[in-house]
Amino acid sequence: MTRHACLIAALALLFLPVTAHGATLEQMAGQMIVVGFQGDDVDDAAVAGLRDDLAAGRLGGVMLLKLNVKSLDAVAEMNAAFRAASPDLPPFLTLDQEGGAVERLTRDVGFKEIPNAATIAAENSPEQAEAIYAEMAASIAQYGFTVNFGPVADVNINPDNQIIAKYGRAFSVDPAVVARYDAAFIAAHHQAGLLTALKHFPGHGSSTADSHEGFVDITQTWQPAELDPYRALIADGLVDMVMVGHLYHADYSDAGAKTPASLSPQWIDGVLRGELGYDGVVISDDLEMGAIRDHFTLEQTVTEAVRAGMDVLLFSNTARYRASLGQEILDILLAEAQADPAFAARIEESYERIVQLKARIR
Asked: Choosing from 285, 286, 311, 331, which is the catalytic residue?
């Protein structure tokens, strides 16, 4: 694109029309973006930048990792500032707090840790598990979070699994048991006013590799029963969000390509929305994992995910950190929407789902 064309495109974005939803296309696209950041204090420049983006509608939420947690008080201050920046459309203030090895808030900063899912299920009934998760969820809410990325809906099929079984992240090898403990986790979080995200669709429990590190092919290992927890929880109306993993299955990929589930319309629109009847928010697993960044450019990742049916694009911003990442993603969304009305319509669909979900944040 020439310098003149870039200038015209930039000027066009300044005058995006207000849609029927009462928001500009930029504001709608902004709600689809959740990013990580470097900073652990409310006065950090990165935090100030995120507050500005949230206030302007250029960003839908933030992801906190351990590197952002120097103290619980500092976390509470940052989250309060993020929330104050967008009071009418509260941001997704997110973390992974499953228990066991997957925790962002730890005893090191005074947070009460709990066991992993496998231990919880082995030693407690679903009712007892709900009480344990209720205490954890109340504490998470106390520090200002609005979303916990859990529960794990993976079925513990492969005992040698490097990312699920190894860390006891799955509740059971029985999909029905998984669904019961997932329901307890969700109910506990709802009591605290928190949203949850079932993960990792369509099922990471049978896999033989870790998508953090690279491409994960589940063609030979995946079993249809791995959908059962999703089917049950969707039917019961318990699902806030479904997190889609970077898992490749040859039967659900674009012809001639190795398309992971997170970029696959066959999985998202076909199976999750079509077969399972899910009409809520779909969020990606971290789009900077090796399974994605080693095979797709940022532009390919963003556009293919949205075309596949993804509503929220999650970027940890850890692979090559830059404070501008959220704006880069937004620019890609807007440029594609300007060129393709069907893509713009997809953004509007996602915005509507996100707004409906955010209305439940307390």
From this structure: 285
Task: Give the type of residue at 307.
Answer: R
CA distance 305 to 287: 10
CA angle 17, 22, 23 (to 5 degrees): 60
pLDDT by residue (tens digit) across 245-265?
Answer: 999 999 999 877 889 999 999
Express each pLDDT in 335-352 by its tens digit.
999 999 999 999 999 999
Query: Which residues are within 8 A (CB) of 356 and not within 5 positions of it... i.e. 6 or more apart?
Result: none
Phi, psi of 113 (to 5 degrees): -85, 155
**Total number of domains constituting the chain:** 1
CATH number where 337 lies: 3.20.20.300
Give residue-wise pLDDT tens across range 315-327. 999 999 999 999 9
CA distance 106 to 72: 10
Does any domain span residue 122? Answer: yes
- Residue 175 CA: distances (Å) to CA of 124, 219, 267, 273: 17, 19, 19, 20
Q: Is 190 a catalytic residue?
A: no
pLDDT, tens digit (0-9, with 9 covering 90-100), for 49-58: 999 999 999 9
Clarify whether 254 is annotated catalytic.
no
11 within some domain = no
pTM beyond 0.90: the answer is yes
Strand intervals (E) in 202-323: 216-217, 241-244, 247-248, 281-284, 313-315
